[in-house]
Design goal:
Elements (H helix, E strand, L loop, with lengths): L6 H35 L4 H7 L5 H29 L4 H8 L3 H9 L17
Helix pairs in contact: 1-3, 3-5, 4-5
Length: 127
């Protein structure tokens, strides 16, 4: 990635990578959900199923995947709003396009970057 790459493009690339990781996580979760349903319909109790389940639990996996996607998506939204505003699009118009208030867009554009929480690296990514 070029150091001169604009922030919105960098955020877009990060969002694409995170989306691919999230899709993979959710596909794996869907397979596990089918297994859990089979165990339950075969007569196993919920406590047996959950106590035997490897960590992270399926609910933790889904929550983490969606949280990670949300965090990266928010960064992209902020950078896209800033880029549109730099191209002289009004805050009101950006708000209309994004489906949020002009106050929300103003906070995105003029506020400092929020403390971006760390996002779990995609599976198989050793850094």
């Amino acid at each position: 990635m070029s150091q001169s790459e604009e922030p919105a493009v960098r955020a877009l690339r990060e969002l694409r990578e995170q989306l691919a990781a999230t899709i993979g996580d959710l596909e794996t979760a869907a397979e596990r959900l089918a297994e859990l349903a089979e165990l339950r319909t075969a007569g196993r109790s919920w406590s047996e199923i959950v106590l035997d389940e490897d960590r992270p639990l399926i609910v933790e996996t889904i929550t983490q995947a969606l949280d990670d996607l949300g965090a990266v998506g928010s960064r992209f939204r902020r950078e896209e709003a800033r880029a549109l505003h730099q191209e002289e699009m009004s805050i009101s118009r950006i708000g209309q396009l994004f489906g949020v208030s002009r106050q929300r867009i103003s906070a995105l554009i003029h506020g400092g970057p929020p403390a971006d929480r760390p996002v779990r690296a995609p599976a198989g990514d050793d850094g």
